[in-house]
Amino acid sequence: MRTSSTMPPESVASALPPARRRPDLGQLAREYGIVVALIVIVVALSFMNPYFLTVRNISNIFLQISINGFLATGMTFVMLAGGIDLSVGSVLAAGGIVAAGLVSGDHAYAPWVGILAGLGTGALLGAVNGGLVAYLRVPAFVATLGMLSTARGITEVYSGGMPIPDLADGFVELGQGRLFGITIPVWIYLACIVVAVVITRNTRFGRYVYAVGGNARSAVTSGINTKLVIFTTFVLSGLLAGLAGMILTARTTSGLPQAGIGYELDAIAAVVIGGTSLSGGVGTMVGSLLGALIIGVINNGLDLMGISSFYQHIIKGVIIVGAVLFDANARREQR
Amino acid sequence: MLLHAEGIRKSYNGVPALVDGRLALEAGSIHALCGGNGAGKSTFLKIVMGLVKRDGGTLSVKGEAVNFSTPAQALAAGISIITQELSPIPAMTVAENLWLGRERMRGPFVDRKRAERDAQALFDRLGFDIDARLPMRALSVARMQLVEIAKAISYESPIVIMDEPTSAIGETETETLFRAIRALAARGTGIVYVSHRLNEIFQIADRFTVFRDGRFVETGRIADIDRGELIRHIVGREVLRHRPEQADSPVQGPALLQVSGLRQEPMVRGIDLEARAGEIVGIYGLVGAGRSEFLNAIYGLTKPDAGEVRLDGRALPPGRPREAIGAGMSLVTEDRKETGLVTVRSVKENTSLAALRDLCKAGFISRRKENALVSAMMRRFQVKAASPDLAVASLSGGNQQKVVLSRCFSTSPRVLLCDEPTRGVDEGAKMEIYATLRAFVADNNAAVVVSSDLEEILHISDRIIVFNRGLAVAEMPAREANNENLLHHAS
Amino acid sequence: MKQFLLGCVAVMALGAAASAADAKTYRIGVAMYGLKGEFAQSWVNEAKKHPAIKDGTATLTVFDGNYDQLTQDRQFDEMIAQHYDAIIFDPIDSNAGGALVARAEKAGIPVIGSNGPVKAANEAAYIGSDDVKAGEDEAKAVIDKMGGKGNVVILQGPVGQLGSIQRYEGNQKALAAAPGIHLLEKNTANWSRAEALNLMQNWLTAHPGQINGVIGENDEMALGAIAAMRSQGIDPATVPTAGIDGVHDAMVAVSKGYMVLSIKQDAFTQAQGAVDLALRHIIGDSYKPLSTCWTMYPSMKWDNGEGKLYNVPWTYVTKANVQQFLNK
C-alpha cells in the first residue's frame, strides 16, 4: 500500500478533476442573494394577498416582465462589455411603430413582414449606437442618450404622433396568443433567455464580451477585435428592443408612439439588481432574469395590495439601491 | 544643513525595503541620490515627503527633528517634490494648473490676469518657453513636465526633490532644466536629484549619495569620483550570474524574428533586431528608453510609423495583434493588471482567452478541449489556485504572472515577447519562470525579454541589446556583459 | 440586505392591513391613465367622497397607469386576477384600451368608462364629457372674438395622448368652418405651462405681430402663452386666448379679460356618476343612485342606470359668469 505522502508534491489545481465546473464563490453568493431576496418577497406577498400565488397571477407576472426582460437581456450584453444603452425605450417604440404601420389598415402586409421590419429597425438603430461607441469613440452614455431622443423622434414622425390601430390578426396573435396555455410573449422570452445564457456561457463571443468588459486592453493583447464585440452588443440590444416593441404593440393591439418612455431605467435596474457590474466584466443572464422578476413581482404585489403608485416608486428605488449596496458588500467580503 | 537623515528604516509586511537610509543636504548643493532597482531610493523619498511613515531613524530639516504624516506637512516644512508621474488637469490653463490650490485672488474672485502674469514671470525667470495662457492639454509631455517643475520651484521651498525629472523630456528641455536648476542652487536652494542617467549626474550634481539593497553605501563630492567608481558603488559586488546553458558562442539557429527599421516617434527611433531559434535576447535600458514601445509595436498593439516585422520569414501586417498571434507570436505585457489579465474573470477564462479560436466549433466553446488546455497549462506553470474557476484577482502576484504566461503559451507561439516578465514576483516563482523560458527556446523557439533588472537580464539572456533613448546602442553576448558595461551604455 | 428586506415587509404589511377587505363590501378598481394632473387628482378625490364609499358599501382601489400602456395592461390583469366586482376605466389610448375592456368583460367584470372613451369596445356604460366638442367650442370662441379673420396658433397636449388627439380633432373642425383663419403654428407643450411659455416666446419672435389668437388645448398651456405675451410687452387682452379645464388661475385670467373662455370639466359628476354606475351594474336594478350629481344637469338623467352613454355637459366660463366660480 502506498500512502499519499509518497506522491510527488503537485500543485493543487492539477490534483483537481479538470472537467467538473465549480461556480465562482462570489458569483454564487451574489446570485444566491438575489434568489433569497426573491423568495422572501414572494413569501411575504403570498401571505399578504390571497391572489398573489394563484396560477393566473403567476402567469400574469411572467407576461408582465417579458417586455422589461427583453430589454434587460440586451442591456446585459451591453453592460457586460462595459457599456450602457439608454435608448432601449425609444428603440422599442420605433420597432413597434414600424411593425404596426406595416400590418395595419387595408393594405396590410403579412405579419412576418412587419416582424422582420420591426426587428430590422431595432437592429439598425442598435448598429448606429454600436458604430458611434465602438468605432467613433463616442461615450456610450452620450451616444445612446442621443439615440433616446432621435429614435423617439423617428417614431413620432413615422406615426404623425397618432396611435396606429387595426393591426392584422396574425400580428396581434404575437402578443395575445397562447401555446399550451401560456401566452406567446412568455414563450418567446423564455427562448430568448435560453439563447442568451448559451451565448454568454458557451460561445466564443460570450467569452469575448466578458473579457472586453473586464479589461479591454487585455482583450486587445489577446487578439480580440474589441470594437466588433462592442458593436455587436449594441446591435443585440437594439434587436431585442425591437422585438420587445413588437410584442408590446401586439399586446396592446395598437402601435403607440409614446410607448416605452422610461423603460431604460427599469431595464438597467433589473440588470444591476441581477448582479451585473456597472463597470462591466461581471454578471450573468440568469441574474438579469431574476432582477426583472424581482421588479415584476414588486410591481405586481404592491398593485395587488392597492398601495399608491407614489409609494411604489419609493419602495422600488430603495430596493434598487439596496441590491447594489448588497452587491458591493459581497464583493468587499470576497477580497 | 538643510536636510539630514540617518538610520531611516522601513519594512513592508515584514520585508525590509530600507534598512539604513542616510542623506545630508546642504544649502546651495545639487545632491545626486543614486542606486539601482530595489536600492530603497523610492521608499526613502516617500518617507521624506510624508507619503509613508518610517519605522525608525531620525529626520531633521534645518536642524529641527520632523515627522511628517502627510505631504502637506512636508511642503509646509519647506520640502517640495517633482515626481515622475504628472498630474495635470488638461482642460485648465497652464497658469491655473500652476496655482492650483493657491489661486491668485482679488477679493472673492479669482484674478486670472495676475495668475497669468505671475506664471509668465516665473517661466521667464526659469528660461522655460511656455505660454501660461494655453490650456494644459495643448502642451507636449515634456512641456507639462517643465510646468510641474516650475510648480515645485514656485513654492520657493528651500529643499526641492527631483525624482527622474528628465525621464519624459528631450535633450533641449533637459538643457533648459539644468540651467534652471543651477540658478536655483545659486540662490541657496538645496536640491536632491534622483536619476538613473549617470551622464546627467556628472553634468549637474556636486555631491552624491549611493544606496544599495536598502542601505547607505557611500557619499562624497562628484569631483572626487569617476564614472566607473560610481557604477561600482551602485552595483556593488560583481555577481556572476551566468549559467552553464547560456550559449558560449552566438546561437546559430535560423532567424525566427526579424525586425528592421522599426520606428515609432518619439520613443522608438529606428531599431533592428533579430532573434534566432533557441535564443533568448535580452533588452536592457532605462525608463523611457523605448523598450515597451518597441515590443508593443512588434506585436501590433500600436501601429509603427515605419519598419517591418518578419516572423519565420513572413512579414506581419502592422497593428494587428490577432495576425501576430496567428503567425506564432505572443506578448507578456509589462503591467499584468492594466494590460495582461482580465482580473475579474477566472483563471480558466484568462488562460484560454487568446486560444479560444482553436477551441471552438461554429463559435461554441468545446468544454472538453478548454478544460484539457487549462489543466495542462496550470500543471505546466504550477499555477497555485484552489480552482480554475477562481477569479484571477484572488491570486498572488506570482501566480497571476503564471496565468499570463499560460495564456501566452496556450496559442503555441514560436516567438515570445516578454516585457518585465518577473515584475512583482517572488524569488521562487521567478526561478520557475526562468526555467520555463529556457525550456521554451530549447524547443527551437525564440524569446525577447525586456527587463530593467540587471541581474535578470544577465541571468536569462544569450545575447543582450542595450536601448538608450529609442535607439539600440550596444549589443553583446551575455557572457561578455556585466553590470558596469550595461549601465554604461544605458545611461 | 436583511434590514432592507425587513423594511419592505413592514411596508407591505401596512398595505395588507389597508386592503384587508370585508367579504361583503363590493370592490371597485379604478384604472386611471395617470395621477399627476390636477383633473385626475380631483376625479379621485370626488370619487372617494361618494356616499357608498364613505359608508363602506364599497371600496375603491385606484391604479396609476403612469401614462404607460403596458402598466395599465398589467393593472387590468391584476384586477381580473383578484376578481374585482367592477372596473372604472380612464384609458391612456382608446384603441389599446379596447383590448383591455374585452379582457375584463370576458372575465365577467363590468367596465365603466369615465372621462376618456374607448374605441370599438363593449363597455357597460360610459360617463364623460366630449373632448371633441370642447376642442371645437374653444376654437370657435377664439375665432369669433377674432372676427373670423387672422392667424392662430395651437398648443397641443402630449403626442399620441387621447385627450390631446380629441381636442385637436375638435380644433380642426372649427378651423375647417372658418375659411378666414390661418393656422400659423401648432406644436406640443405637453400640457405644461413652462413649456408653453418657451414655445410661445419662440413663436412671437418668429412671427412678430402676426399671432392674432391662441388655442390652448388645456388651461395651463393657455396661461403659459399669456405669460409669454406679457413678457414681450403684448397685452393679452388683444390676443384672444382660450383653454380647457377650468383651473383656478384660468378663472382669474378670464375675469381679467386675458382669456375669452375656459371650458370647465366636471370631475365631481364624472367620478361619482361612474361609481353609481359601477354599483348599479354589480347589484342590479334594485340599486338607486346615491350621488347628488344626477340632479346637476337636466340633459343627463339617471335613466335607471341602463344607459350606455352619459354625456356630462361642459361648463363654459366667460367674463359674464366667471364671478360665481371665483367665489366658490
What does this structure look like?
Chain B: This is Sugar ABC transporter ATP-binding protein. Chain B: One of its GO terms (molecular function) is ATP binding. Chain B: Pfam families: ABC_tran. The complex is a heterotrimer of chains A (335), B (491) and C (328). In chain A, helix 2 runs parallel beside helix 13 and helix 3 packs parallel to helix 8. The relative contact order of chain A is 0.19. Chain A is globular and about 55 Å long. Chain A contains 14 helices and two strands. The N terminus of chain A is likely disordered. Chain A has a two-stranded antiparallel sheet with strand order 1-2. Chain A has one domain: ABC transporter involved in vitamin B12 uptake, BtuC (Orthogonal Bundle). By secondary structure, chain A is mainly alpha-helical. Chain B has 491 residues and is an alpha/beta fold. Chain B has two domains: 233 residues, 3-Layer(aba) Sandwich (Rossmann fold), CATH 3.40.50.300; 236 residues, Rossmann fold. Helices cover 34% and strands 26% of the residues of chain B. In chain B, strands 6-9-10-3-11-12 form a six-stranded mixed β-sheet, with helices on both faces. In chain B, helix 16 links the parallel strand 21 and strand 22. In chain B, helix 8 packs across helix 18 and helix 14 crosses helix 15. The two termini of chain B are 31 Å apart. In chain B, 48% of the residues are buried. The radius of gyration of chain C is 22 Å and the shape is elongated. In chain C, helix 2 packs across helix 11, helix 6 crosses helix 7 and helix 8 packs across helix 9. Chain C has 328 residues and is α/β, with parallel strands linked by helices. Chain C starts with a helix and ends with a helix. The longest helix of chain C is centred in the first third of the chain and has 18 residues. Chain C has twelve helices and twelve strands. The N terminus of chain C is likely disordered. Chain C has two domains: 152 residues, Rossmann fold; 134 residues, Response regulator (Rossmann fold). Chains in contact: A-B, A-C. Chains A and C meet through helix 2, helix 3, helix 11, helix 13 and helix 14 of A and helix 1, strand 2, helix 4 and helix 5 of C.
Largest sheet of chain B: 6 strands, mixed
The number of distinct structural domains of chain C comes to 2
User: Radius of gyration of chain B, rounded?
Assistant: 25 Å
Question: What is the CATH topology assignment of the largest domain in chain B?
Answer: Rossmann fold
**How large is the count of helical segments of chain C?**
12
Helix content of chain B: 25-40%
The assigned CATH architecture of the largest domain in chain C is 3-Layer(aba) Sandwich
Largest interface, Cβ cutoff 8 Å: A-C, 56 and 45 residues
Amino- and carboxy-terminal Cα gap of chain C: 52 Å
Enumerate the strands of the largest sheet of chain B in spatial order, edge to edge or round the barrel.
6-9-10-3-11-12
